[in-house]
Design a protein that fits this description.
By secondary structure, this protein is of the alpha/beta class. The protein contains 9 helices and 12 strands. The longest helix is centred in the middle third of the chain and has 20 residues.
Length: about 300
């Protein structure tokens, strides 16, 4: 049976997949990943949900997503895994390079339409008001934001209180959610403008979006890749079209609904680059051993 033709995109960005949880739409994500041929794939945080990770729930489709990602790396796709709050254990691996697979906290892509700054966005959870001046410190400021959030959540955990997570506030539809999302977008855009970027791409809040934002330093286009729990969305970039928002529900070529038992097995799933596959398997093993205690 001939392989289906895949759409060529220069950059694809997905985030907030939450592998290892019941809400993850791994089957649909796998279909999407098999429909594209990206030069660069950015995994913008919360790909594996360490906060809710359990040894008892890891379906075959979730593992096949991991193996498929390794297969893409083997075939030459440059994969950038940017850390988020639900996979924060990976932050100690920031800077790891293994072939086409990389782990970082943030990324800058110099694209024909302008420089795009990508990071998950959880650094704003605790320190929204002070994020701008901290970010002006550059890499050290970004790392300080991560440290502040980590220390705050550690303290809350010791007090028996839930972690601070803007994404949870939005998901719970609190009254201030609209304001929180607006503040998040403006904070990200303002910091991006301060540093001379044309675009800023986040995840975290599960709100897919592409919109221009005016700041004191100029206009910035804010991008959010959404999630694969509720919205099933991604960001795609080509030199011809620029950044666009992909919605699984709007793709006529995609079957609607998940049927894990009927998915065809792609040879690329088993043809994974072994060093990358071994690294991913090792990380998954560490997640199981070091699952943090959280209040849900």
């Amino acid at each position: 049976m001939p392989a289906k033709k895949r759409r060529r995109v220069e950059v694809a960005v997905i985030s907030d997949v939450h592998l290892g949880t019941y809400g993850c739409h791994a089957t649909e994500l796998l279909r999407y990943l098999k429909s594209i041929k990206p030069k660069i794939l950015v995994l913008n945080g919360d790909i594996v949900d360490i906060w809710q990770f359990t040894k008892s729930y890891w379906p075959g489709t979730h593992m096949r997503v991991v193996r498929h990602l390794a297969g893409l790396a083997a075939k030459g796709t440059h994969i950038h895994y940017l850390t988020g709050n639900h996979d924060e254990l990976l932050r100690k691996f920031a800077g790891t390079r293994l072939g086409a697979f990389r782990i970082d906290n943030k990324l800058v892509l110099d694209l024909p339409h302008g420089k795009t700054w990508l990071f998950h966005g959880d650094i704003f959870d605790v320190t929204m008001r002070h994020s701008r001046w901290l970010a002006k410190l550059g890499a050290k400021g970004y790392d300080l934001l991560i440290l502040i959030n980590r220390m705050m959540n550690w303290g809350l955990q010791k007090l028996g209180r839930p972690r601070v997570a803007l994404s949870k506030a939005v998901k719970d539809r609190v009254k201030s959610a609209v304001s929180l999302v607006s503040d998040f977008e403006m904070t990200a855009a303002t910091i991006a403008a301060d540093q001379g970027y044309s675009y800023v791409a986040c995840g975290h809040i599960h709100c897919p979006e592409i919109r221009p934002v005016s700041t004191e330093k100029g206009d910035v286009v804010y991008l959010n890749s959404g999630d694969w729990v509720e919205n099933l969305t991604a960001l795609e970039y080509t030199a011809k079209t620029g950044w666009q928002l992909y919605r699984y529900a709007d793709d006529p070529k995609m079957p609607q609904g998940a049927d894990e038992g009927t998915e065809e097995i792609d040879e690329g799933d088993s043809a994974a680059d072994m060093p990358v596959a071994s690294l991913l398997d090792g990380l998954l093993a560490e997640f199981q051993l070091r699952r943090p205690e959280t209040n849900k």
